[in-house]
Write the structure tokens for this entry.
Amino acid sequence: MKKLLTFFLALCTFFSLAQNPKIDSLRLALKNYDAKNLELRKNLIPNESDTAKFNILKAIGMEYMKVSDYDPAEKYLNEALTLAQQIGFKKGISACYNNFGIICRKQGNYPQALKNHFAALKIREETGDKNGIAASYNNIGNIYNDQGNYPEALKSQLASLKIKEEIGDKEAIAGCFNNIGLIFLNQWNQPEALNYFTPALKIYRETGNKNGEAICSGNIGMVYERQGKHEEALKNYSAALKLYEEEGDKDGIASCYYNLGVNNNNQGRYPEGLNHLLASLKVYEEIGNENGIAGVYNEIGITKLNMHAAKEAKEYLLKGVRLATEIGAFRMVANGYDWLSVADSALGDFRSAFEHNKLFMLYNDSLNNEENTKKITQQQMQYEFDKKQIADSLKFTQENELASVRLQKQKAITYGGFAAAAITILLLFFVYRNYSKQRIVNQKLKEAQEQLIKSEKMAAFGIMASRVSHEIQNPLNFVNNFSELAEDMIHEMVKSNNEQERNETAKDLLNNLQKIKQHGMRADSIVKQLQEHTNKGTAHEYFEVNSNNAGSTTANS
């Protein structure tokens, strides 16, 4: 029944694409344009006539974009761009670059997407197109968010929001709220994400923007999903799917299938979750959305692991990591390697598990260290600014005081020895005050340096804690896996009436118990070694030795 329903939905989507009255109407307008071109030019200046054709070409391209049919969309947009360049229509040129950027992002080609959006931004800044500038910042921020570059993503979205608030464009403001919410959602800050998604959804409903309403509903569903409110999440996903189907938005439909798959998996309904994920993968492959494809590969891999199909899981996870690496989605790459180490452990391939875990730590530490470096840089900049302010203030005070000393010396020459003695006392007072101020400055500098050192130590402790958890996770996974297998063997022994089978199962069970003991002792050994190194203050040497020796007794998951 479910398969029949999925087929029916796909069929409806096909017919909605094949019979799009708006596209047919625009094509007819384009066909009639050339036939009436000479007549139009009698009444219009050439640029006005060419601009009319440009608008038709761009409109057709954008209609194909709405239904995620990107090949014909690019064809018509390229024709529009060529025409805009011929007539020097800068606003049209920037609009085409902007649309190309959107298509490239949908296909997961982030470098080309950024190139197109920055080209559009440059033209819009030259022409003073505020709406266009805000839209470009918005799109650039979305790409940085996809890549996991959250500081730059937030910077671009806030720049867009500032302009949109000046203009007073409600729907555009809602778009910014939604995108900022996504930045916080990707950093697992669900409450802050909901603070932005909720007002965005309200605006979209007030203005009747169904596409915006669908996007926000899906995003709110993801917030509830991460909070463990699966029924609330399902309600929002279903609402979003209905709206996307009404709009014929294939990209949106695919994202809803993906979310429904995650929702089922989180509730232990793995076969249903897998069906939704495969439906999502099919649509993403049809429209060429590589970012979506990579994400679905990873999630199918996780689903297969939960279904105890580790070999198939590894195949999907490897596909996801390769594709995510190609498109520069590095957060997705890190997550993929993390789950690959789990799949390897389940398959008993501890060498590969160790190697994949090292790659996970490399990518994860790189992303985290980049963020820490930015924070430290901000602290350093603030520190340098404060230091300069104090130094400038001290210099100003010293210059004033020296000028005062010179004046007092002149008076001393006039008024005699008594005045000279008074000036000397005053000079000593100034010197003492300068010394006190300098001591305060030195103390502030020392405190700032200590704060930087403390921040670096805290970052080091965080990395060390992460490595410790990964060191002991794999033997514990092995103990859990063999314990579960032993439990199944006991059930087989109880059910079996064949004495020979019971004896063979008993032997296998004994071997399993020995492996459980072996890996339990292995985990115990790791903890003891870490304790010894920690007491000696050489914990870093332990990790260096193990990271350089793939065949050591430590394998991470």
Notes: Residues 1-18, 38-46, 375-397, 547-557 have pLDDT under 50 and may be disordered. Residues 369-547 form one domain. The radius of gyration is 33 Å. DSSP finds 22 helices and no strands in the chain.
